[in-house]
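Q: I'm building a small set of examples for a reading group on sequence design. Run inverse folding on the following structure and report the sequence directly after it, with nothing in between.
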């Protein structure tokens, strides 16, 4: 007398959105790589190396925030 439709006991899994900090870090990484290329082309080796180091740092930050976001989506909020 009521519900005739079947309901799934498994919740829908939608693709997780990219965390905002990971997106910002990715943008910084891409801009740092472009700046490094421009610096090396113009002959600024020292400045180019600094840009490469910044690109490496922001790349690691991107992976960290992506992993943290996926873990939070699976386990709930992360504290600490």
């Amino acid at each position: 007398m009521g519900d005739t439709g079947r309901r799934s006991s498994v919740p829908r899994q939608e693709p997780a959105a990219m965390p905002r900090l990971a997106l910002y870090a990715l943008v910084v990484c891409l801009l740092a790589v472009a700046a490094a290329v421009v610096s090396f082309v113009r002959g600024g080796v020292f400045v180019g190396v600094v840009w490469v180091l910044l690109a490496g740092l922001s790349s690691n930050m991107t992976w960290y925030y992506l992993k943290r976001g996926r873990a939070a989506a699976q386990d709930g909020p992360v504290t600490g």
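The chain has a mean pLDDT of 84.
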